[in-house]
Every structure is written in structure tokens, then in C-alpha cells.
Amino acid sequence: MNYSASEKSDENFRSGMIALAGRPNVGKSTLLNCLLKQKVSITSKKANTTRHRIMGVLNDPGTQYVFIDLPGFNTNYKRLVDRSVYKTATTGVSGTDLVLLVIDCRGWHEQDTLALKRIQDENLPFIVVLSKIDRVKNKNLLLPVIQDVAKRTQINEIVPVSAVKDENIAELKKAILKYLLPGPPLFPSDVVTDKGEIFRTAESIREQIFRYYGDEIPYTSAVQIEKYEQDNKVLQIDATIWVESKGQKRIMIGSGGLNIKRIGTEVRTRIEAEQDIKVFLNLWVKVRARWTDDLQSISNFGFSETD
Ligand SMILES: Nc1nc2c(ncn2[C@@H]2O[C@H](COP(=O)(O)OP(=O)(O)OP(=O)(O)O)[C@@H](O)[C@H]2O)c(=O)[nH]1
Ligand SMILES: [Mg+2]
Fold first, then answer.
1. Are 15 and 63 in contact (CB under 8 A)?
2. Which ligand places an atom closest to the C-alpha of 74?
3. What is the pTM of this model?
4. Between the CA of residue 247 and those of 216, 217, 224, 252, 263, what are the distances in Å?
5. What span, in angstroms and rounded, lies between the C-alpha atoms of 59 and 193?
6. Fewest Cβ atoms nearer than 10 Å: which of 51, 55, 151, 288?
7. CATH number for the segment(s) 197-300
């Protein structure tokens, strides 16, 4: 990881940290992946998918954008683990050069107010991203939403985008660029994210859990990678999925182990394709009662208040 001579010496270079903030499920992680043109953060139909602060670096000629994906702002938490995740969301915007306040284009939601207040309390520069515009067929319907958002935020820079259809992303980058200060790149050009393969593997498993199980299990499970060892072209991964009850364990494993096999196959083939390597993945499901309310377990499973 080295800076090239041209990276260091270009006086017109601009760089900066840009947080993606907003209520859960508005499309922050999908937008990050779209901006980077690769997957660094998991996504799902369910709210509260992202639990950690995840950095993604985009290098354009003369510019480095350091995006910070964050958990959604949500004070409606029941468990200690949710409080830890919420802290990551609130502290994550601090010290950034710009915040993208992501709002679903179908209209303002009371939880958006919470994210807005946090940004305003810190006096952070921000622009609004109206997400998921592909969901609105008649684009005239966006106008009243834009007017309402402008009134609530006192911001004129409101950029409608679709991360799924890759619409208006160039406009968004242009809007961000104005806030980036002249200065050298913050990271060497080969750095894409701050998260390593072990974290990404655990997240891949979690993504499948969000995809395949109902409302409760995604929020009461955690993934711990016990072994991650590469020998030539073979990668051995042992992972434990922690749940809170025997009933959840039964559901997670499924009849004849079918559910857990499906998750294993999905994750294994993804890593094999990404890394061109043969993967042996062992998944265990274990029970730790009420881990979501136990500080020690929360910390053991990789959560921290500031991440
Ligand atoms: N149609 C459409 N769906 C989108 C778009 N962006 C995101 N989604 C969907 O919205 C859902 C939530 O996306 P995420 O990226 O996980 O949302 P998030 O804001 O990161 O959510 P949390 O991590 O829970 O805070 C997923 O089902 C996405 O596929 C978009 O541009 N168009
Ligand atoms: Mg997310």
C-alpha cells in the first residue's frame, strides 16, 4: 500500500470523508455499493441491516471520496445491542466533511427528523439524497416531496437518485465534490475498505440470515468467525452463528439441516467466485440466551460503542 508520486504531489487533488446517514432501510448501503461499483456493505429488505461503521473509498481522477456507511438512526431500541449500534450511527457522522442525509423519495418520515437533528446539532455540512426514485413512475410526484424536504431541512441541495438503477449518481458525485477540500488522498489508491476478509465473511453470512429468516432471527443472531485459514488455493472457514434460544436454533438449522446448508452454499460460492479459491465453510449454530442484552457477549461478538 503505497502512495504514488503523482498522488502525493498533485496540488489540485481533493479528498474528504462523506458519511451516509439516515433512518434504517432508506438505501444507504446500496448507495455506497453503487458509488463504489462493488459490494462493501451488506443490504437487505429489512431495517437495521448495517450494524457497524463501514468505510468505502472511491478514487476518481484528481479526487478521493472516503464514504462512511452507518447504521440507521433509530431510537426505538429494545436491547442493549441496539443501543450500541445506535451509538455507532450517531458518533459516525462526527468529524466528516459532508453528510449525505438519505431520505426515501416517497416522503418525509418522523425518524428522518432524528437524523436531521443529529447533523444540525453538530453543525455538519450536509446535502439531501432522495433515494429509490425508480420506485416513482411519475417523476412529477417528486416535486412536492422535494419542496417539503427543502422546507424541513432549509437545504436546496437535494439530489434524487436510484442506486438500484444507477440513476443520477454522477450528479451526486458532482454535488459532493464541492465540499471536498484541496489536499492529498487520505488513503493509498488500492484501499477499498477498512474491513478485512474476516469481517466481510461474517457480514456475508449475516446477509443470508436477513434474506432467509423472518422478523426476529436476524436481530437475535450474531456471527463469529472462529477460523479463517488459507493454504494455497484452499480457504478453510469455521463460523458460529449465535442465537438466543433453542427454538431459534431449530429454525436456523431447518429440517434436515436444509436452511443452514442453503446459507453455507450461498456464502461459499460467493467467496469462491470473488477470490478464485476453493472454500470449505463449516457453520455451527449455538445458543447464548439473551446475548443481545449482555455487554460481554455484545463486545465478544464485535460490537463497540464507537466502532
Ligand atoms: N427500488 C429501489 N430499491 C432500493 C434502492 N436502494 C436501496 N433499495 C432497497 O432498499 C432496501 C434497503 O436497502 P439498504 O441499502 O440495506 O438500506 P440501509 O439504509 O443501508 O438500511 P440499514 O442498514 O438497515 O440502515 C433493500 O431492499 C434495497 O434493495 C433503489 O435505488 N431503488
Ligand atoms: Mg445499511
1. yes
2. 1
3. 0.95
4. 12, 10, 20, 9, 18
5. 12
6. 151
7. 3.30.300.20
DSSP helix/strand/coil, 256: helix
DSSP result, 111-174: HHHHHHHHHHHTT--EEEEEE-GGG-SSGGGHHHHHHHHHHHHT---EEE-BTTTTBSHHHHHH
Q: Which residues line ligand 1 (CB under 6 A)?
A: 24-30, 43-45, 47-50, 71-72, 131-132, 134-135, 162-164
Q: How far is CA 250 from CA 205, 208, 258, 301, in A?
A: 17, 17, 11, 21
Which residue from 179, 181, 169 is spatially nearest to 130, judged by alpha carbons?
A: 169
Instruction: For 257-273, write each residue's pLDDT tens digit.
Output: 999 999 999 999 999 99
pLDDT at 4: 59
- In CATH terms, the fold of domain 5-182 is Rossmann fold (3.40.50)
Q: Is the dihedral of CA 142, 145, 150, 153 positive or negative?
A: negative
Q: Which of 20, 23, 42, 43 to mutate for ligand 1's pocket (most ligand atoms within 8 Å of CB)?
A: 43
